[in-house]
């Protein structure tokens, strides 16, 4: 069972020829409103990747909440742990350029009221994989990670957006998933350090680390060894949902008993497939698609 504790948003997406510079106004070509938030995205993508998923988080009592939750219900995600609060449902303002690159502004709204106490002890055990990100309060993520670890659950943190982590949170993590920028923030290293060295610096005997490297694939440190998983070359349409699809496929694979190298292979496959479609949740691939591409990457 996957337990996801994290953000639930509505994405407001504008397509632009290129990303705007400071103070610049650009004419966009298209606008779309869609469900998002890293917690919700990963919950939905993990369900599509074959996992049984329960989501814990917060939405507002507003018109955005049904939009934020509709895809999750349709995918079979258990939403009993989602709480309605007085703050507005969170939103993400996203620009996507013609090359598929993006920049994102997130307004937390109801996500700021998500609490670790929403997740009961009864669902945290050795059969549970807990998945979290950093779009809800750090102290709540830390409290839940420590409680889950003490009860025998596997704790996975996708440390995004980039943020320095308190030592007690880092110590409670079994699997850390970051991109190269996030790895640099956590290690305090410069642009000259490669992903492999950052990965090894973050890993311990008890903690596996996965560093995603965009079009190059991913690197992982596990049991004292460094592994690399190249990605298939593609022409990206939209990179917005790639990181969440990758993380979701990794945790879905771990939850069904795969080892780290296979989970990373699934993650790279899912992230690649997500880049071929627009949107975040709409781009999340099915388990059969992930399995086919992962087999080709082996």
In short:
By secondary structure, the protein is of the alpha/beta class. It contains 9 helices and 13 strands. The strands form 2 sheets. A 9-stranded mixed sheet has the order 5-4-1-8-9-10-11-12-13, sandwiched between helices. Strands 3-2-6-7 form a 4-stranded mixed sheet.
Structural commentary:
By secondary structure, the protein is an alpha/beta fold. It has one domain (2-7, 36-89, 111-297): Ribokinase (UDP-N-acetylmuramoyl-L-alanine:D-glutamate ligase). Helices cover 32% and strands 26% of the residues. The protein is built from 9 helices and 13 strands. The chain has helices at 38-48, 64-74, 138-150, 167-171, 180-187, 195-202, 242-255, 260-274, 287-297, and strands spanning 2-5, 9-15, 30-36, 53-60, 78-85, 90-96, 102-107, 129-132, 154-158, 175-179, 208-212, 218-222, 225-229. A 9-stranded mixed beta sheet has the order 5-4-1-8-9-10-11-12-13, with helices on both faces. The chain has a 4-stranded mixed beta sheet with strand order 3-2-6-7. The longest helix has 15 residues, at 260-274.
Structural class based on helices, strands and sheet pairing: alpha/beta
**In CATH terms, what is the architecture?**
3-Layer(aba) Sandwich
Count the E strands. 13
* CATH homologous superfamily identity: Ribokinase
Radius of gyration equals 18 Å
Looking across the biggest beta sheet, what order are the strands in?
Answer: 5-4-1-8-9-10-11-12-13
Domain module count: 1
Q: What's the mean pLDDT score? A: 94
Q: What is the helix/strand order? A: EEEHEHEEEEHEHEHHEEEHHH
Helix amount: 25-40%
Shape: globular
Q: Which topology does CATH recognise?
A: UDP-N-acetylmuramoyl-L-alanine:D-glutamate ligase
State the end-to-end distance: 26 Å
Low-confidence stretches: none
Strand content: 25-35%
Largest sheet: 9 strands, mixed
CATH class, anyone? Alpha Beta
Number of helices: 9
